[in-house]
Amino acid sequence: MKKLLLFFTFLPLFAACDHIAEGDRLIEVAGPAPTETSKTVLLEDFTGQRCSNCPTGTEVIEQLQAVYGDRLVAVGIHSGPLGFKGTATVKGLATDVGDEYYSHWNLEYQPVGLICRQGAVNYTDWAKAVLEEMAKTSTVKMQVEARLNGNQIDITVNEEAYADYSGNLQVWVLEDSITALQTMPDGKNNREYVHNHVLRTPVNGTWGEPVTMTKGAKLQQTMTQPLGDDWNPANLSIVAFVYDDKGVEQCVRGNVEH
């Protein structure tokens, strides 16, 4: 497994979207080797187009993904006071469901992340939190397949339980490579900024649907999602995960095939 070198600095826990100077602390991160029961880590990045510090958080995600690959699934949830829902001429990425998530978790600043829903984590601490979750094993194995079918996406989620499990299955549509406005760390607006792993919509409700499995059980669930008017089908993917009151048990991401 590769090692990751990240430079971080600290900021107060409840700081707003302030400018952060270049990091002054070095952390070396080495991920555990994957096994049959390895956990894929979900990082929910609560971000906003008006947040000048959010591009720095995105850079942290990119570094982590370069090391961990598919074992880290990041979702950009545009929301909150620094989110932007757009105008007639300027594209916005914030959504009502994103605002609902932001309020539900009682978040107070951006960027901030949930790492497998173990509480709010400032982006300067994402590397440590991701590594801690990645070291855990999961009782659920998952696979997701998605294919474009006319103006809709056909989705199949497969789950296998290594132990009894009861929680919720959540399925989301993400889009990469969206060019849209972003306030940068220098305070200037970049209208050519490329946003990735942007949450477009939940497929099976805001909080998903109940799922219960006994040890050794295999489940297959199918669902469909109409395409949004402004989505680029070539850049869509599906994220599926199971979670309960203790956090996210397992997560998987798959591209929408054509």
Distinct helical segment count = 3
Give the averaged pLDDT, no decimals. Answer: 90
SSE series:
EEEHEHEEHEEEEEEEEEE
Largest sheet: 8 strands, mixed
Q: Proportion of β residues?
A: 35-45%
Q: What form results from the Cα inertia axes?
A: globular
Rg computed from alpha carbons, rounded to a whole number of angstroms:
18 Å
Indicate the low-confidence ranges by residue numbers. Answer: 1-16, 18-28
Distance between the termini: 32 Å
Tally of strands: 16
Briefly note the structural class of the backbone: mainly beta
Helix content: 10-25%
Explain the layout of strands and helices:
Elements: E1 3-8, E2 25-30, E3 41-47, H1 54-68, E4 72-78, H2 96-104, E5 112-115, E6 120-122, H3 126-134, E7 140-149, E8 152-161, E9 165-175, E10 178-183, E11 189-195, E12 198-202, E13 209-213, E14 218-226, E15 236-244, E16 247-257
Parallel strand pairs: 3-4, 7-16
Antiparallel strand pairs: 1-2, 3-5, 5-6, 7-8, 8-14, 9-12, 9-13, 9-15, 10-11, 15-16
